[in-house]
C-alpha cells in the first residue's frame, strides 16, 4: 500500500525550493520508482519563459540519473500544497516513465495514467511505423 500522505509531503517540501521568480507559481512533484526510490522535482523558471522546466521534468531526469526503472506512483502539488494535474507535456513524460500502470494522485483521487492521458502516444506507436517499413 502506498503512503500517499508521505508522497504528497515530499512534493510539498520540494515545491518550497522551486525557482519561480517570474510567475510565483511553485510546483513540486514526488514519485516512487519500481525499486522503491523516492524521486522529487520542482519547477525551475527562466526569463525566456519557453525554456522553463516543469517539476515533472526534473523528476523524470532524476529517475534516469539515479538508475532508471519505471515510475509507479506520482503526485504534484502547487506552492500551497494542493494536488494539481500535470500539464499536457508532462503527462507525456509521465507516460514514457511509467506507462499505463502509473498511479497518479489527482484532485479527483487516484487515477491510472490511461485515464490521465487517454489514447497516449508512446514507443509502441514508433515501433509500429518501423515494423511497417516507415522508419
Explained architecture:
This protein is α+β, with helices and mostly antiparallel strands. Helices cover 35% and strands 22% of the residues. It has five helices and six strands. Strands 1, 2, 3, 4, 5 and 6 form a six-stranded mixed beta sheet that branches. The termini are far apart. The relative contact order is 0.15.
Secondary-structure topology with pairs:
Elements: H1 4-15, E1 27-33, E2 38-42, H2 55-65, E3 71-78, E4 83-84, H3 88-98, E5 103-106, E6 109-112, H4 113-116, H5 123-131
Parallel strand pairs: 3-5
Antiparallel strand pairs: 1-2, 1-3, 3-4, 5-6
Keyphrases for this structure?
135 residues; globular; alpha+beta; single chain
Give a quick summary of the entry:
By secondary structure, the chain is of the alpha+beta class. It has helices at 4-15, 55-65, 88-98, 113-116, 123-131; strands spanning 27-33, 38-42, 71-78, 83-84, 103-106, 109-112.
The number of helical runs is 5
Beta-strand percentage range: 15-25%
Structural class of the secondary structure composition? alpha+beta
Coarse morphology: globular
C-alpha Rg (nearest Å): 15 Å
Q: Helix amount, in percent? A: 25-40%
Largest sheet: 6 strands, mixed
pLDDT < 50 runs, ≥5 residues: none
